[in-house]
Amino acid sequence: MEGHKYNYPREFYDQYAQSQEKSVVNKMQQKYWKTKQTLIKVTGKKEDEHVVASDADLDAKLELFHSIQRTCMELLKAIELYQKRICFLSQEENELGKFLRSQGSQDKTRAGKMMQATGKALCFSSQQRLALRVPLSRLYQEVETFRYRAISDTWLTVNRMEQYRTEYRGALLWMKDVSQELDPDLYKQMEKFRKV
Q1: Residue 127: CA count within 13 A, CB half-sphere
Q2: Which residues, 6+ apart, have CB-to-CB distance to 30 below 8 Å?
Q3: What is the pTM of this model?
Q4: Chain-centroid distance, C-alpha 117
Q5: C-alpha–C-alpha distance, residues 111 and 118, integer Å
Q6: Using an 8 Å Cβ cutoff, are 147 and 65 in contact?
């Protein structure tokens, strides 16, 4: 195969080389401003109030997401605690019912019959209380599945969004910095602003 010789004017190559060089500089500047925005966020310095105000709706939704995340954990803990207490109460109620039934069988008076009836009712009540564990277990599994799937997926999306928001705010800082030095009469500065 014969080699092809391309005849491009030197200016085109120079412009291409400059654009490649500028893109490296551009990337470095983007990294700088992104890092600066990250430091502002981490150190808790005051950000531009207009930028913060523009994100107010998003921040409210993020607060709602974090609230849902917290309440899911609290609900799981409450269900778990409720199940433990139901088991404990049912066990104690059953023990009391057995005790009353045994004591009532030894007492042949009317009080003995009442103790047996009360003991029987307590044993039945403890069994009914234990029946609550099945729907509670189902609820626990449903909330846990919601937490593992929906909340963790949303959390990943929120983390990606926070990264993009940091990049965006860094770009806004960069634009603000460039615009403060901007002289509209100089074409080169306008070109720099457009690039940013």
Answers
A1: 7
A2: 167, 170, 171, 174
A3: 0.60
A4: 53
A5: 10
A6: no
Q: What token pair was written down for 150?
A: 């929906």
Quick: pLDDT tens for 145-154. 999 899 989 9
Place of tokens 């940013």: 196
Q: Which residue has the tokens 């634009």?
A: 175
Instruction: Give me 181's structure tokens.
Output: 């030095």
- First-last CA distance in the chain: 45
- What tens digit of pLDDT does each residue of 48-86 get? 676 667 778 888 888 999 999 999 999 999 999 999 999
Kindly state the tokens that stand for 71. 């309440």
Does residue 21 or residue 64 have the better pLDDT? 64
Buried b (16+ CB within 10 A) or exposed e, 64-81: eeeeebeebeebbeebee
